[in-house]
Amino acid sequence: MLRIDRVAAIEATGMKRTQKHRQVDSEAVKKNPALVRNEPAPWQIDHDPEAYAEEMFDECLACLKEGRKFVNTNKPDEFVFEE
Hints:
Layout: H1 4-22, H2 26-31, H3 42-45, H4 49-66
């Protein structure tokens, strides 16, 4: 519950990157290799998952006990995980 949205967002990012690489012009890449560079986004790097889990554990547990929806804040705002 604490990780599903973030993991799904990272997987979706990887799928988009893979699709982009499959459609790349190899001649253009020879001229500019940065076109296929696979650097993670800052939101992927600048995150401490252990600290997040410790910080949000009580809220997450309360949501489970009370039947409320837990809202993760460790992912890009525009990403919405759909079960």
